[in-house]
Specification:
The chain is of the alpha/beta class. It has 11 helices and 9 strands. Helices cover 51% and strands 17% of the residues. Strands 1-2-3-5-7-9 form a 6-stranded mixed beta sheet, with helices on both faces. A 3-stranded parallel beta sheet has the order 4-6-8.
């Protein structure tokens, strides 16, 4: 199984669902499909709000595909892969619709970036987060701008430096990543249903203008995140990265 990205529209609410059998990791093909799904639904006149979710109840997203990262042999390949996360973030940033992230489990690396890029994210008490990049010899450069924008420099640096420690969902809520945290999936889904129903009845033009206002100051992110992808690509060619990621993969 190679995973999938699916979209469904109902009553003005578009639900984008992604899945990969390896802990909802995101290889290039799924990153591309996710970017396209966000863009397509974002410009669809029938859609007023978007919910982004994954399958399962343990992990929302475990970040990039280990297999694909280990296959990187040159800077061009590396830039293409890591730009996949940049493209998802920029797609969320650019569309004129709110994106609501349903974070039903743990989040690692690039998944944290996607959740932070959402205009509104809610999670469960089990939705702890971790930026593990430094532990394998790279850094969260591509997602750094969006995590720092949502949570602040102090929280971002704490996550980045202490790369092996999980931070609780309540910690992430206190730092601004989650708007709210719920005890059960039923409560989480009920809250999302209530919110999206209200948004589906709201003034689309007002929401579009608010979305633009939310992202003021990020107009250079097409270039910025591409440059950050180049930085990660350079580090991903090191022996340290290959050895560390191989050990990490063999343990998991």
């Amino acid at each position: 199984m190679e995973g999938y990205v699916k979209s469904e529209i109902k009553n003005g609410i578009a639900t984008i669902t992604f899945f990969h059998p390896q802990s909802n990791s995101l290889p290039s093909v799924l990153l591309k499909q996710l970017t396209e799904a966000i863009h397509t639904n974002g410009i669809n006149a029938e859609v007023k709000v978007i919910v982004l979710q994954s399958v399962g109840d343990a992990i929302f997203c475990s970040g990039g595909s280990f297999d694909e990262m280990l296959a990187i042999k040159d800077t061009e390949t590396g830039e293409q892969f890591f730009s996949g996360f940049a493209n998802v973030i920029n797609a969320i940033r650019k569309i004129p619709k709110f994106v609501i992230a349903r974070v039903q489990g743990k989040v690692v690396g690039g998944g944290v970036g996607i959740a932070c890029a959402a205009d509104y994210a809610v999670g469960l008490e089990s939705s702890s987060i971790k930026l593990s990049e430094l532990a394998i010899g790279i850094g969260p450069f591509v997602i750094g701008p969006v995590v720092r924008r949502k949570m602040g420099l102090s929280a971002f640096s704490s996550l980045t430096i202490n790369a092996t420690e999980w931070k609780s969902a309540n910690w992430a809520r206190e730092k601004g990543m989650y708007a709210d945290v719920y005890k059960t999936t039923e409560e989480l889904d009920a809250a999302i249903a209530t919110l999206t129903d209200k948004l589906s009845r709201s003034n689309l033009e007002a929401m579009k203008m608010l979305k633009k206002d939310f992202w003021v100051g990020t107009e250079n992110w097409d270039t910025l995140l591409s440059e950050q992808a180049s930085t990660v690509s350079y580090l991903a060619l090191s022996d340290f990265f290959v050895n560390a990621l191989t050990k990490f993969k063999n343990k998991s």
